[in-house]
Structure formats: structure tokens, C-alpha cells
Amino acid sequence: MKSRARPAPPDPRGVMCGQSPVSSLTFGPQETYKERPAIISGHESGQIIEWSITTQRAKVSWPGHTQSVIWLAWAVPDKLLSQGRDGMVRVWTQDKNSWTCIGEIPCAQFVFCDSAVTRWNNEIKLAVPSRETSHVDVHTLDQGRLLSQTSVLTPGDSLPISDLSHTLKPPSTETYGMCMRLCTFVHRSSGPRLLVAYESGTLTLWDLLGNVLLNQVKGHEDSIMAMDYGVNPNSDMITCVTGSANEVIKTWQIDKDTFVEGPSVSVTNPGISDIAVRGDGRIFATGGWDHRVRVFSVRKCSPLAVLMYHTSSVHCVCFAPDDTLATGSKDGYIALWDVYKDK
Asked: What is the DSSP secondary structure assignment for residue 33, as one 8-state letter?
């Protein structure tokens, strides 16, 4: 019996051009995405652009940072967080058709390590790479204070957006090297956890609130360049996916605060820039140095599709609340894809 041929990968359903290389992406907040589908892009020029997905045109653009924008996320539905290589995480609020900065949190300069944010009880926990090598600063953004803050930041101001709670310090700076990637998740049986990937290839798991290193594993021989996680909807098992400068992509199940190595896969060309696990935890996408976007199943780490549109390194990938995949590249283009929405 002949097996069915795998369908040809789709073309992008939409393309947007931001001129400067695209360095980070996030879709509009889940709470408002259905009524107002939008995507926010960060660029190597420091610009941040809000796009309408309906018209695929830029709605507003503003200078967010003096260096490349390496991370974008939502603190609450109407407060955007951005991180630049200029050593600042900024908090933005929208007023009609403009965005204004209402606070800053210092972080490491000239690194490529992103920050991570999670909500816990009535607080928002923000983990940022510290200016001390291999350390992570954990800030508390008071939700009530954040929602009530409407004043605009001017140079030299220090608005009370956050408090530094504590700093996570691994046993040895020399052994671990620089922080490369951060991810936070909340497991209902254990509370907030923080995944930290290091320059040494070490992957660590921390109790975000208790300031305790729970576990670690030598994940890759090279620096871990990309990381994300997903939650199995049937078992609540956390799966972490990591990639590095070589061609191997690995998965790790996190069971009772312990890493268990899962399936891995090797791609044709080395260099993984970014990884995004879809919200249902079933598939993940990678952005490669070879200009390609690859889609895999989480459970078996088996290849599902190779998407080819970009003409330069794919710096960032992310999924929307409706499972649309967005990819951003050094070529300055953002592509929107419909892939495996029924998987």
C-alpha cells in the first residue's frame, strides 16, 4: 500500500516589509486579538512597528530603542514590553494612534538574551538578563500600579513601574558564561519556573520565586541560541525545545523539576536563530540561518514542513492566538503562514 505524499508547503498568506532587518515579533494580546488582529515587530534599527493583519499595513512606527529590539511581549493587554540591546526594557502604553513610554527597567547591554514575563497571583514577574554575567534579575511589576500608570517617561525619570525582587546567581560565572535565552512558565502543581539557557550549552531550571536552582543539564556543545516550551494538553507535561549554532534540535520533558531528554532531530544546515512552540503544545517552528523556516511535531520531533520565502537569516518566529505563524528575517520582511492548523 502506497503512503500518501506529504502536501507541498504553502506560500505565505501575507507579507509585510519593514525596511530594517526584523529582530523580534509578537502578536497582539490574546484578549483583543479576535476583534483587532495585529502584530508588533522590532527591528535592528531600534524601530517598533504595529501592523494591522487585516490590511497588512503599518499602523504606527516609533523609535523604541537606540539599538536592536530583541524582545517584545505583553505585561497586560494594553502595556507592551520591549527590550533593546541598549540595556533597557521599556514599558509602552497606547493612546489612540501613538505609543508612549511609561517606565524603564535596566538589563544587560549588547547581549542577545531575551527577557521573560509571567503573571502570578496579582503580580507580574519579569526576568531580565543582569548586567552581571550569567545572572538574572527578577523584577515585580505591580499590576495595579502598572494599570494606573499613565504619565510619560522623560529622560532622567525613574517611574515606579517595578521593584527588583532578587537575582538568580548560578554557582560559577566562568562555567556557565552569558545568559542566552530565558523562558518562564507556571505549572499548577509547582508555581512559577524559569528556564535559563547559557553560553556554555547548559540548560537550567529555577524556582522563580524561591531563588533556587532546581536542576540543570548539558544541553548542547555550543551556546543555546533558541528556546521555547509547550504544555501537553493531555498530561500537563512541559516540553522544552532548544537549538544552537549546530544542526541539532533537542526536546526536553520537565517532570517533577527534572529534565528528561526527549527526541531530537538534525536539520540540513546548521544554525537555529529562534524557536516557537504553538499554544496547543503540538507543533513548533524554527527560524534558521539558512533562510528557512521548519515545522516539527513536538511529541516525536518529526519534520512536517520546510517553508521557503525569506532571502536571509530568519531571526524570529511566533504563533498567534489563532495559530497563524509569523516569521521575521534579516531581509526586512515579515511573512504570515497558515500551517497545520488542524494538527
From this structure: H
Q: For the chain, how many helices (H) and strands (E)?
A: 3, 28
Domains detected in the chain: 14-337 (2.130.10.10)
- pLDDT value for 156: 41
DSSP string, 104-155: EEE--SS-----EEEEETTEEEEEEE-SSTT-EEEEEEEHHHHHH--PPP-T
Does the model's pTM come out above 0.90? yes
Contact 279, 319 (CB under 8 A): yes
Residue 58 is placed in which grid cell? 503599518
Helices (H), the chain: 30-33, 143-148, 173-176
Distance CA 154, CA 190 (A): 40
Distances in Å between the alpha carbon of 50 and those of 53, 299, 337? 10, 34, 18
In whole angstroms, what is the distance from residue 137 CA to residue 131 CA?
Answer: 9
